[in-house]
């Protein structure tokens, strides 16, 4: 049987490639579990220092596999709240809570939960030909996988509502202009650029990078006072890391630091 998520670990970069290209990498249960296992590995395996998420074939991810939701097959309506609790939400939380950077290379169309999966990652690069679609409105659902949270927070209500209510495709360059993603790059340069970025992060001071991610996410709900306290606590931890000592030593010795991720 074909792996629904291809996994490689090279020089600290755990690359996870969604791999159901004939269905534009839409989610079935097997792919859900495989992606979750990949992110869980990133949590527990200290040799993983950054994650790179992408898709195989011409799409990134078309959200839920609607073939698995075919009402014509009969039976009671599925409890989609249960499927979110069981499959989507744990993975989204694992990505956000991972104390390591997650780069997403959106190689083609990202629709429904596929778009919102990308927005949950830390740095998103997209091929210029890629588009993001809040496809839910076309089938009578609401945006999920954190989409209403990301869109409202990043774009504000007017653009978030227009995208979600119309399901109009948003091209990669406009998504970058609007601040939804880091950048749009030429299609044939996407993977090289994303891999170089993930490699750079994987050779960085992992403790400090993980704490930085945590701080920026926490800022969304903290008051300034709370955030100042959290910065103090995180800086205390970062200051005790081996990589901080190496960073300062390397600066003083006028050489490139060799971070070990501790
Ligand atoms: O259910 C729950 O658990 C709740 C959670 C829901 C989360 C969600 O994500 S709901 C939203 C589900 N996704 C969609 O509604 C998107 C459906 N797909 C599309 O609208 C279009 O395929 C795209 C706009 C993404 C791409 O269009 P296009 O023209 O480039 O490609 P295509 O021809 O439509 O698709 C290519 C193949 O992929 C095609 O198969 P075929 O005809 O060649 O055998 C198509 O059926 C298949 N495919 C694409 N998306 C899905 C899919 N098959 C199953 N499920 C899909 N989501």
From TrEMBL:
InterPro entries: ClpP/crotonase-like_dom_sf (IPR029045), Enoyl-CoA_hydra/iso (IPR001753), Enoyl-CoA_hydra_C (IPR014748), PaaB1 (IPR011968)
SUPFAM superfamilies in alphabetical order: ClpP/crotonase
Any single GO BP term: phenylacetate catabolic process
Protein name: 2-(1,2-epoxy-1,2-dihydrophenyl)acetyl-CoA isomerase
Record GO terms (molecular function): isomerase activity
Family the entry assigns: Belongs to the enoyl-CoA hydratase/isomerase family.
KW Isomerase (keyword) present: yes
